[in-house]
Amino acid sequence: MRWYANVREVVGGGGATVVLAHGYGANQALWDKLLPALSQRNRVILFDWDFTGGGEQQPEEEGRYTFGRFADDLIALLDNKGVRGAVMVGHSMSAMAACIASVRRPDLFSHLVLLCASPRYINSPEEGYVGGFEKAGIDGMLDAMSSDFVSWVKGFVPNAVGDPASVPPVEESFLAMRPGVALEVARMIFLGDQREALGAVTAPCTIVQVEGDFAAPPGVAEHMRRLMARAAATDVVIIDSVGHFPQLVAPQQLLGVLEGVLRRHGGGEDGRAHGGAVEEQVADGGINIITA
């Protein structure tokens, strides 16, 4: 049983193959504002993870969901579609699955775009790591999900989205999840620590964070960059917006970043993202810090 469903392929010109993987609580409709532009010159593959309610969900079972299993199913999907050398855009939890998949099968990926990603949500003061949450806060969130899932969604989603106009579609997709499955996937995400996996990534990466994202604060991006010392290149992009869903709230800014990645991938003129992006060369390791 695979954990992906509703695979869709939109083929434009002869550019790159772009794979769009949504994060927790979302579905592939999250990418609708970006799809027309991305598919003009590229082959775009989208799908739903089974926890969205779009696939044949299995009975919830504690510990069944793992990032490694999501990575294996991402690999299976790309093999099934005959993909090699894709530009992989992984949102939130899918970014970590993409990192693990790229280590297991580097031939499948030419570039990773890690969007609103976090390898660890819980703060670790002894390591100087600020993930954004205390353990007690995560435990309280999981308890709230367990006791009244609908009320938790209606409280959590507006904070996560940050833009009232974009709340309804995200709230709808969250409520489509079966509560028991949603809780198990949340435990995997919010109690996990995937930082060790980042050190094995060799594919070039663009880490994209949002300035006002409470779930994955911008400081996490710099921590990820330091851990990804083996990556062929690592850019950090901070979008000047709010929330955890820039696909909905700041689509043109995000599209500019993705088009910049695709130009570099395709050997374009200068590889600079447009849509207001400003690129600054930073002496520390030659890393590009881009504020979009």
TrEMBL record:
Domain of life, source organism: Eukaryota
Signal sequence extent: none
InterPro entries per record: AB_hydrolase_1, AB_hydrolase_fold
Domain AB hydrolase-1: 18-253
Transmembrane region(s): none
PANTHER family: ESTERASE-RELATED (PTHR43039)
Sequence similarity: Belongs to the AB hydrolase superfamily.
Protein name according to UniProt: AB hydrolase-1 domain-containing protein
Organism expressing this protein natively: Setaria italica
